[in-house]
Design a protein that fits this description.
Its EC number is 1.3.1.88. The mean pLDDT is 88. Strands 1-2-4-5-6-7-8-9 form an eight-stranded parallel barrel, surrounded by six helices. Strands 10-11 form a two-stranded antiparallel ribbon. Strands 12-13 form a two-stranded antiparallel sheet. Helix content is 50%, strand content 10%. The chain is α/β, with parallel strands linked by helices. The protein contains 23 helices and 13 strands. The protein folds into four domains: 234 residues, Alpha-Beta Barrel (TIM Barrel); 97 residues, no CATH class; 46 residues, no CATH class; 63 residues, no CATH class.
């Protein structure tokens, strides 16, 4: 408990590590709305060790971004240790991701897909705890049985884990089958170990936080989706979505990040407004937006549209179409997105299958159209969306592709210093004893090296002529 109290400052409100979502600007925004501890997104340990650019971007932080825990994924103790040594000066602790249930974690063999390899996990945690100057923590998912979950937690504690986050869902509970997290597993782990235990799952409002702490005995709660849809949930506030959105965009000006992160956050903040059919055109524009100016225009447009309702100058019920989201609060206020239950999802899927069996035609299949109303495939639609986001890139590519080799009709090599295609460039370099850095053709250099090597080894001149 000393680490949780003295190093971290006894945090209760914690924002989970989220890939492409818990970047520095969002962490700072979350802290301003009551978060007391944040994690970096899950970082791939092998890439972190090899790629300086990836490493530098991942470790971007500021004074306001403390305390901070860096989270890694991986399955090699030595690589995880190497990555942790590079990161330990920039954070308060290193967290090992043992909870990710996504397909990418299955392919990479990390996250929750390591939870059955206890010997390997013991070696990873033990090696890091013995060789780092800062504590090692873990984030896990529960097993089907409470007994196995408790033994799992005790094993990690004995290996050197100093703080444990327990997600009350199994590895299979994800996507439309997410369902509710079971806090009884968190309670059982908390009673069995001596290290601080954080509860993850079912946190969508302040009342959930208080109830979770009381039922589980955990020292803190961690939230992911709840924070994305309402970053002010730790303050028990439901601000209009444009308020945190504009604050977030201001932070982006200070701490730039990929446009895809920005787009994702805005979609979450305005989820309920963009689900209204009359706002479908705005939703499409947000999906195609590719500049900060476009993002700001869209946010301010939504602000101007719904501020009269928020301030009471217009009555929402009397002027808007009926929506089927079953929201307690007006749709412009930040509030959690409640998923359908797994049972209802399975029921809907079965009904769709029955309908498809009855109607052998493809009436239930989603259709796509281009700007002129012509039917196109889903693949073509995705390509058109990519083009709409970066039209200048497509134009530049098309201009380059039109340039021809000065000798033949083949396309010109974009970096060739002789304005030739690769075949013509290779012939020219061979005949005239030249190099071309653009095509990586090094005839002149290699001939010079061959002569130098020959002079050192005294190779006969006749053989040199052949070379």
């Amino acid at each position: 408990m000393e680490f949780w109290k003295e190093t971290l400052g006894s945090p209760v409100n914690i924002v989970a590590p989220m890939v492409d979502a818990s970047e520095l600007p969002w962490r700072v925004l979350s802290r301003r709305y009551g978060a007391q501890l944040c994690y970096t997104p899950m970082l791939h340990s092998a890439i972190f060790c090899k790629d300086p650019k990836y490493r530098n971007e991942a470790l971007v932080s500021c004074k306001e971004d403390k305390p901070l825990i860096v989270q890694f994924c991986g399955n090699d103790p030595k690589i995880l240790l190497e990555a942790s040594l590079l990161a330990q000066e920039h954070c308060c602790a290193i967290d090992i991701n043992l909870g990710c249930p996504q397909a990418i974690a299955k392919r990479g063999h990390y996250g929750s897909f390591l939870q059955d390899e206890w010997t390997l996990l013991f070696d990873i945690v033990n090696m890091l705890s013995k060789n780092l100057k800062i504590p090692v923590t873990c984030k896990v998912r529960r097993f089907e049985s409470i007994e196995k979950t408790v033994r799992y937690a005790e094993m990690l504690e004995s290996a050197g884990c100093k703080m444990l986050t327990v997600h009350g869902r199994t590895r299979e509970q994800k996507g439309p089958l997410t369902g509710l997290a079971d806090w009884s597993y968190v309670k059982a782990v908390r009673e069995a170990v001596k290290i601080p235990v954080i509860s993850n799952g079912n946190i969508q409002c302040l009342q959930d936080i208080m109830r979770c702490l009381e039922e589980t005995g955990a020292v803190a709660v961690m939230t992911a989706e709840g924070n994305l849809y309402n970053p002010a949930l730790f303050k028990s506030e439901n601000p209009p979505a444009w308020k945190p959105a504009l604050e977030y965009l201001e932070l982006i000006d200070m701490y730039p990040c990929p446009l895809s992160y920005i787009r994702g956050h805005l979609f979450k903040l305005f989820q309920h407004l963009l689900s209204i059919p009359s706002n479908n055109s705005i939703r499409i524009r947000l999906g195609a937006a590719n500049t900060m100016e476009q993002f700001k225009v869209i946010v301010n447009e939504l602000k101007d549209m719904y501020t009269p309702y928020h301030e009471g100058f217009k009555k929402w019920e009397e002027t808007t179409e009926h929506d089927s989201q079953n929201l307690i609060l007006p749709p412009w206020l930040c509030q959690s997105y409640v998923r359908d239950t797994p049972e209802n999802h399975i029921k809907k899927v079965e009904e769709q299958r029955k309908d498809f069996a009855v109607n052998t035609n493809s009436d239930n299949k989603r259709h796509y159209e281009d700007a002129e109303g012509n039917p196109i495939s889903r693949k073509k639609m995705k390509k058109l969306r990519r083009i709409s986001r970066r039209p200048e890139k497509i134009i530049n590519m098309s201009e380059k592709s039109m340039e021809k080799c000065t000798v033949c009709v083949n396309p010109l090599g974009s970096k060739c210093i002789y304005k030739l295609c690769k075949k013509c460039c290779k012939n020219k370099c061979y005949i005239e004893n030249l190099d071309c850095a653009g095509h990586r053709i090094l005839v002149k250099t290699r001939r010079a090296m061959a002569k130098l090597y020959a002079s050192q080894r005294k190779i006969p001149e006749k053989l040199l002529d052949i070379l």
